[in-house]
Amino acid sequence: MTAILLTNCEAIVTSASAPVLRHQDILSENGAITAIGPDLSRQAPEGTDIIDATGHFIYPGLVNTHHHFFQCFVRNRAELDWTRYSVIEWLDRIYPIFSRLTEDCFYHSSVVAMAELIKHGCTTAFDHQYCFPRHAGSRIIDRQFEAAELLGMRFHAGRGGNTLPKSEGSTIPDEMLESTDEFISACERAIDAFHDPAPLSMRQVAVAPCQPVNCYRETFEQSVALARDKGVILHSHVGEGESPVIEQVHGKRTVDYCEEIGFAGPDVFYAHAWELTRAELAKLAASGTGVSHCPEPVYLVGAEVTDIPAMDALGVRVGLGCDGAASNDNSNLMHCIHSGYMLQCLVASSREDGVPVPGRFLHYATEGGASLLGRTDIGALRPGMAADLFAIDTRKLDFVGTRHDPISLLAKVGVGAPTDLTMINGRIVWHKGEFPGIDEGALFAAAEETLHTILPNTTNGDNHV
Q: Is residue 459 part of a domain?
């Protein structure tokens, strides 16, 4: 693998909690950072690719901890607008579409989501893939890893699934159901085929039953047993409005239900958690259970703004996620840093704890996300860690008056444009508006063609004002 040297960087943010380094270089080789400091050209091996980073801010690659890639095929559909229906009506409209997805749909939607993530500085992505229509076959996770390899994304696959029939209270069509045995067997196959626990691993797998309201208790119990046996992470949706249902069915709210099963601990993280009480958040902190906060869906589907200050005060591990297009029509984790911060400012006067400083939101999107995924080799820029980073050329009018504080920039100001460079595992995967060696136009055409096999390329004028 070619060594790469970024020289004369305007600023290097090694982490959200470390001093910013000014006018220094960063050298990577064989997927890892080998040195950060001034005048590293003398240390660079022969054949090093040298890139002048004058005027550029360098950041650790962002870590996306919750997404549903397959939902990229239902973005910006007026007929599926949340605001027009009750939740149940909306689910009844959207799940039949999900149940029609083909294997090719899952591949191309993964390419679409990962490409957008990479353009905006994300270098590691966790996808919670819980949609497995029977006609789509058994290779959906395989195709996602294929898409990740094409783009150079560091990919964690959350092998999800649903086992509770709609007739017993779930929201899932029968076409998307699996038995617990089928689900556990599929998880085990994915782990054995793809999970790599080695440092700088590009492929990992988590056991991720969709959510307690859509699965039998035994599904969660066997998920815990399998994950602990295989040494992989556990994940699910928890605390997004389902606790009253869980309490009605099982006699306790979701956090207590999960703790009783063993679906809690330092190898577990939940998505959302916006409905949890302070006492429940304290239980998460005590067990080491983490939370993937997805700020943008709060605008559409959250009954309240997630209490991130309380999580911070109590010591809950927090990462950031985009979530899927059913509740966020983009795959831009950079934007989530800004919107996450602004949401907390919006409700600050009503909260017991103050708004976390802007740099905390960069932390959530980097080291916080790495912690949720059980990684110590990503999320910061230090020798020996993965060469995952992005660069922004700040010599633009957009950044006048902001360059004194690179750490707060992403949260307070926000960065709307794609990065100027994204590097993953020491390989430049996005540079100057292009994916090196990849024809984005061809990928676009193939994805659009596949999309139109399940959804027409038309809009119903009655759905617009």
A: no
